[in-house]
Amino acid sequence: MAERVFMKGTEAIAEAAVRAGCRFFAGYPITPQNEIPEYMSRRLPEVGGQFVQGESEVASVNMLFGAASTGIRAMSSSSSTGISLYSEGVSFSASARVPIVYVNVGRGGPGIGAIQPAQQDYNQATKASGNGGFRMIVLAPSSVQECVDMVYEAFDLAAKYENPVLVLTDGVVGTMMEPVILPEMKTDEELASLRKKFEHRAIIGHPVGKQAVCRAGLMGSGQENVNIKAAAMYDDWDCEIRVEEYMMDDAELVIASYGISARICKAVINKLRKEGIKIGMIRPERISPFPYDTFAKLDPKKIKGLLDVEMSIPAQMIWDVKHVLNKDIPVRECLRSGGQLMTNNQVENAVRDLIKEVL
Amino acid sequence: MEKKVYSRTNGLLPGAVSGFCPGCMHGTVHKLIGEAAEELGQLDHLVRVEGVGCCGLGQFYVSHDETIAAHGRACAVATGIKRSSPESLIYTYQGDGDLAAIGLAETMSAANRGENFTVIFVNNGIYGMTGGQMAPTTLLGMKSTTSPGGRVAEEHGYPMHMCEILDTLTAPVYLERTSCDTPQHVIATRNAIKKAFKYQLEGKGFSMVEIVTSCPTNWGMNTLDSLDFLRDKMFAEYPLGLIRDNG
After folding, report:
1. Which residue range forms the structural domain that includes residue B65?
2. What ipTM describes this predicted complex?
3. pTM of the shown model
């Protein structure tokens, strides 16, 4: 039964995963996501699941690959510099089409960066989470409730496409507490039925003659065929685009933002709207596949300027926006990084500067 | 009357012909794994997690479920599989570079956790598929493509003895070093693999069989000379025999 509780983002992520049927978790400590493995180490044994503290992120993601290749629902989590070490296992999972789910609770970067929140991993998450040019669906929650909902659906998306799914959040959403409605716990019968669907290719041992193989790479022409099939799948992902268009009906100014930054922007928009300023926001709820059409359709006769708001320096999502945006719409940036938080005032001032410039 | 005295294990794909180099022992080890699992009635539950390098060529010969781990990660992948499917009989198949260099952390940590699977470690003292580079198990003085003057202790360190290193841990249940150079050693290897599998089926924990083999191609020797080198030099550095049996 769904229930309403007051929870920290990271713990809500862990509980949502368990309710979605996650029965295997491997991870390595790194701030600011330690509550996820800690929660899993208590919670998974209660539901017959397995928790392993890996000796590294590299080991953890490969354990995840192994677990998910048996058809069990499996998850891992880390943060930024740790996520870099996931590249190997994520790429293997994409190549071998193994349905893993992993969470990046982002911190400042590059390198070890700062342990405070940031959105520095957009390009890594959406463009190259490992070698080989594969793609993933990437969900970007802006609240604890969205963490819960997105983690819950991440497992279904991973199973549907037999492909890795990433939930990219940050240290703000991960460490704040909010009331959330938790989804229903999937029953053992439901999970057994889901696992059954994968059984023919699960690496669990089959009778001779019904061998299952899980290979992240093929000799000869095999690999190109795998790539062609994957590319066809990516081409079909328009149906997986999720974007929020906030107060866009009469907007003359538009903010492009996602995750925690978008939530801050929403508060600013609400304030400015009371002054009669016609401002709206386009927020990709999933940053991959990216809602290019939503930006492409913006009409320069109506939209006088766009403000890109990210907790990243340099800006990263801006390149996806500019890729399709009409060149007559001026684009400006409002950025923080390195663990410094975006503030309402900073966004508000950036909007007022834009108004002076274009209206 | 005709009496059947030998038949090929069903653990290998029917009709598959070995493409390993002349004098290589990988083919023999693959056969022994199939025979050991078959004798235990476990072929239907057998899962292979193979390493990268010549080990990965096993995909062309085995009939049971298999996945290829990233280089060095076989023990991590096997941990994930075994924890999620405890009824499967799981072995990793790894070479010296895979297990003792890039995968050292995964090997040590899985052994230390006492993960209930079996490691088949094929140690020929050199990287095979990539063309004969120096491995952690390359002997002192032995030439490789990345130690062309021979391995020098002051620069490259000493050969690593993985059975003895794992023997410092408390958790492993069974560690044995064998070879495949004579019929007696082949039988000993099959028995060791069978014992390791049996312990796994009994839930006893981590086991490793290290099989010291030759690599004529990358040692730059003919098959007979490589057998002499194996017996004279490799066995001197890596003595065959039981290291630990806590079963």
Report:
1. 26-245
2. 0.96
3. 0.97
